[in-house]
Fold:
Amino acid sequence: MKILTAAQMREIDRIAIEEIGLPGPVLMENAGLQVTAVLRNELGVEPGMRVVVVAGKGNNGGDGLVVARHLHNQGVDCPVLLIGSLDEVRGDAALNLKIALKTGVRVIEIRDETAWKRFRKILSETPIIVDALFGTGLSSPLQGLYERVVNDINNSGAFVVSVDIPSGLSSDTFQLIGSCVRADLTVTLGAPKVAHFFPPAEEYVGELVVADISLPPLLLEQPGLNLELVELESLIPFFQPRKRDTHKGTYGHLLIIAGSRGKTGAAAMAGRAALKMGAGLVTVATASSCLPLVARSSPELMTEPLAETDSGTIAAEALGRALELIQGKDALLIGPGLSTNPATMTFVLKLLEKIKNFKKPVILDADGLNIISSRPDRLSSLPEKTILTPHPGEFSRLTGLSTAEILKRRLEIVAEFARRHKVHLVLKGYRTLVASPVGRVMVNPTGNPGMASGGTGDVLSGLLASEAMQVADILQAAVNAVFVHGLSGDLAAEKVGEKSLTATDLIRFLPRAIRFIGSGGEDESENY
Structure:
């Protein structure tokens, strides 16, 4: 599902109206009908109830006038508080204002704060308020009467339904630009907007419903609409039962170079996660003294010892053996628990130099990322199928930007970084982003705060490496892995709670998450 900016939505509306021939009033009617359906079907609005619409003078207000007309026709007491005068309403909204008045809808003009003080008590006398004050075109903070109206809506105690976007938010950013309506439910029109998915703006959206207003699907398939929300339905084909005539070689042999003294768990969890994600074979190459601990973690893992330093980390002298092990492998994961020992850093940097023409997927995670951040000039010479998996702190080291700047501008920064360095990038965190070298950015909806604990990233790296061997499209493989990782966390949290959630719980719930996706969300098994 595409996620749009205000400019992109305006252009889609323009094409629909001017080039395809869908009249603006038809789109406005469809929008109002969809919001009305949500009020009736989801909130139980019925004849005899009261709903108040707070409308602006633009198209968002026009949508609200359509809602008021349909509710009025259905026997609902639905007055409209128009913030402005009747003669200020223009365009398609003016048409719907005329229709509303002729059909008996009560429209109250609020021209100034004196009028607002007189009529605002209506807000405290209704169980539901429809916020149709401002839509996606807002780009500056609300002031004066508008700010007062928004604050009074928030203090009314009513259940608030916003049309398209809570008034006061800008659809182009998830940062707050000023006072805004705190909605309990938002019915967005045609496609979701940027502000709907990321905090702090997301916190004002409430439950999000995406309403179909009959825009032709081809309008959402235009070039340049690069931000998308991952939907479960798109993953179903990749989680179906396997063909009978396959064997372990069909699903790839993964080499993981990971682990050091005190950090063998990272290597073990990455390996176990890769196996649970369907890898045919997994070999973990680690510092020789660490091998017994990794081997004991799972009998299905194969292990290889590498030369080590006095500190129990992989030594620079391990390069030759590592290059031998890479031969014939279908993917390479470097990083979990490696450490940043100077000798280990030398080993990793030389290894990356030697395999820059490697044609199979390469995943760099954890200390692999910390090591490459010491030589950012190497970023543009990584193998062509490289996936980088930083959290914001690691991405800060990779880019030289502050963590605060990354979080504020993450959408543009991840897209630009992936394009410039020709890599796939997974920026981990709330709403994990997956960016491709051609500029596409996928927003992952799964996961929860309980996953903010040690080891969950190691599990993800194993899932990524495993899926990258099984799905030819690297972006799709990354999207699959990130989604199932978060879903495993969500299923685990239902059982053990967010506070007690650990990385090994994610591995435990992987089979259920995989089956859940494959069944289209119908698998309700509790046997985990």
User: Anything to note?
Assistant: The first helix runs from residue 6 to 20. The longest strand covers residues 281-287. The radius of gyration is 27 Å. The chain has two domains: 6-222, 234-518.
